[in-house]
Amino acid sequence: MEKLIITAAICGAEVTKEDNPNLPLAPEELAEAALEAEKAGASIIHLHVRDQAGRPTQDKDVFAETIKLMKEKGVKAIIQPSTGGAAGMSWEERIQPVYLEPEMATLDCGTTNFGDNIFVNDLPLMRNFAREMDKYDILPELECFEPGHIYSALQLKKEGLLNKHLHFDLVLGVPGAIKASLKNLLYLTEILPEDASWTAAGVGRHQLPIALNTIVMGGHVRVGFEDNIYYKKNQLASSNAQLVERIVVLANELGREIAKPDEAREILEII
Ligand code: KMH
Ligand code: ZN
């Protein structure tokens, strides 16, 4: 089986320090968290940033500063900025990190309920984002919260807007979207194109079981505070690295080797 790519989604847009005081938010904290997660076994850092008050922002300068600090600290993992940002942001705000020309960025593949909010990703927005990513040679991570999102991604492929390796991120368990279950994970992976690779992310208490099933099924795993702030019931995680470390232990037990950053690049065909 292919080596396992672990993505650390280190802060997200919604979680707060009140939820978990160990959440990294400032650029320096994010850079340190990325380095620790990479040392623990992560080869992709899925990145959101916050303003000085801790609110989600897509400000290009904040991304630039954070990525610079990560590189200065020696982070070699693929840095994958979010173009999703937070529900309610305009597309102009969301797309900003693309202009930093990262190796990879997320491309959200459809509108979805997101708790009490609606996270809007219509096809014109998706086409726009895909064109910009193509222009700057960025590999999109096709983020799907519902089965229909996979079909929308394939529609973009048909329209000639996705010209690189297809890599999906299947997010299960967002309130209002597809529930996190093994049956749903099997269904989502069955409708992916054969030559695509995929990561799965389970939200909240589903992070661990979804990860475990994914390791066995040959997919790749996303963990981190964006999706889950607990290590186990009633015990907050002490760091993103702690969540990554557990996946490494499980993968070792299950005979799945861990991909280093350059091995992840090879799997994703970005080198
Ligand atoms: N914060 C969510 C509304 C992405 O990173 O591309 C969207 C999100 C997706 O996190
Ligand atoms: Zn995200």
UniProtKB/TrEMBL annotation:
Source organism, top-level taxon: Bacteria
InterPro entries, per database record: Aldolase_TIM, BKACE
Listed GO MF terms: 3-keto-5-aminohexanoate cleavage activity; metal ion binding
Required cofactor(s): Zn(2+)
Transmembrane segments: none
Keywords: Metal-binding, Transferase, Zinc
Pfam families hit by this protein: BKACE (PF05853)
Name under which the protein is recorded: 3-keto-5-aminohexanoate cleavage protein
Organism: Iocasia fonsfrigidae
